[in-house]
Amino acid sequence: MTRVIVDRGRREVLSRLPGLAERLAGAADPEEARRLFHGMLSDLGSGADPLRRVRARHLLELFSNRWAEELTGVPFMAALLALARGRTEGVSPAFCYELDGLLDALSGSEGAGGGPDEAQAALFLTRYPSGIERDAYRRRHKNRVRVLNQLGGSPSQWDDWIWQTRHTVRERALLAQLVELSEEEAAGLEAAEASGVRWSVTPYYLSLFDEEPGGLYDLSLRRRVLPPSTAAKADYSGGTEGTPLLVERLSPFSALVKPCLASPQYSCYEPPPPELDVTDSKLRSALEWFGGHPEVWEAVIGGGDVLCLTDSKVEGILAGLSRYKHLRRILIRSNFPVVMPQRFTALLTKILSRYVKPPQLEVGLVARFCHPYEVTPEAVTAVARLQTAGVTVYNEALYTSANMRRFEFAALRRALHEARVVASSSRLQTGQERSAVPVARVLQEYAEEAALLPAPESAQAPVVETAAGITVPLWCDRELVSIRPDDGRRVYLYRTARGVILDTDAALAGFLGGLAERGEEIEDYAGLRDYI
Question: Other C-beta atoms within 10 Å of 479: how many?
Answer without folding.
Answer: 15
